[in-house]
Every structure is written in structure tokens, then in C-alpha cells.
DNA sequence: CGAGTTTGACCCGCGC
DNA sequence: GCGCGGGTCAAACTCG
């Protein structure tokens, strides 16, 4: 387990307005492939903003967020998979003469064993999709064993290859497991939209 | 009409 | 080597 360290990810928000990130630690617990024992759900009004960690929002907004957030809180989100993944875009020809529907060869993303950061966290929510400020395009959904119908999303930003997987536990369908893979290489559009006027105003006021 | 979703087929890694 | 399961592709479809 080399470098198994907790890492946080750009802030999703639970509503379409201002971000509430990270979620209260009680909502989050490490996601491992073996057992998942959700903690008791705290009362909604116990979302303790006072305990939010000290976040460098400017760095986050500018896309430079591959650092850890200072916090004394317990693990809120963990790196889930330390054996994968490095995507190598390899233009591969179709094997043999049998063609896929669509007829042409295609680019295949080869998952190589290396370190591409993955983070999972679990929330108890009626909504599958956390509004994290980024725009996502769904590219697949299928039934798998331990989860009903996980959905696969890709960041719609043309230079960004971040993916996320959203699934509900079959044991407890009120629990949503969101797994992020990769790090955004661009600012969070929605947060920028929301906070840019505020930041400008702060800069203006700080001159006096 | 473009962007996003659905869905069946395909690909590939892994365990046996 | 084979089969299974998870992940991805891409055509068709939907929606604004």
C-alpha cells in the first residue's frame, strides 16, 4: 500500500447554489472493496459548517487542487484504488476481420496498472448526482453484481479526462457511492461563475 | 440542431 | 484456455 493517503477532491455542492464541501464527515466513510458499514445518519441540521476544513478555494477554483486540505476531521474520502490506472490512448485496430457495429476501428482506452487517483465517497441521498460544479456526460450504465445500475460519467471539458461512477448499494439503496477518477485540469465553471464577482469585490475592497 | 442520455454490443482483465 | 464481469463504445433516441 504505497502512499495510501487521503485525498480530497474539488468541492461538489449538494445544491445548485453555493458549495457545501466536504460533506459532513459522518456522511462519508472509506469505500473499500470488502465491507461498507455506513455510520448512523446524522440529523440534517447537524451539517456543521463550523467544522469545515480550511480550504484554499482560490487554488481549487484555478484548478490547482492536487493538494490536501488541512483538516483534523477523520477520513472523509479515501483513495480507493492504488493499483490502477493509467490511461494510455492507443489507437488499436479491430482484431481480425469481425467489425463492431458501426464498422470502423476505434480508439481504445487501455487501463494500465499505474497511479491515476481515484476517490470514492458515500452519501445517503435521494439524488444520485451530486452537483459538484463540473459538467458531466453520461457514457454508460449497466447492471453489475454488487450495485444495481452504476452510471458512468465523463467530464465534458474537452481537455479533461476525469470520470466518475455513481452507484447505489444493493444492500442499502439509500446510499450513493460516487467514485471520481482523475483530477480536473480546468477550473470549476459553476464555482467560478458564482465566486468570481465576490472575489473581484474582495480584491477591490482590499485596496483600501 | 446540438448536447446529453439510453442501451445493446463489444473489449479486456482476471480468476478458475 | 475459457467464461464471467466490469467498463467502454457508439448508434439511436430524446430534449431544449
Automatic annotation (TrEMBL):
Chief subcellular location equals nucleus
Q: Which InterPro entries match?
A: WRKY_dom (IPR003657), WRKY_dom_sf (IPR036576), WRKY_plant (IPR044810)
Instruction: Print the keywords alphabetically.
Output: DNA-binding, Nucleus, Transcription, Transcription regulation
Note whether Transcription occurs among the keywords: yes
Name the residues that span the membrane: none
Q: Where in the cell is it found?
A: Nucleus
Q: NAD: is it a keyword of this entry?
A: no
Q: What is this protein called?
A: Probable WRKY transcription factor 24 isoform X2
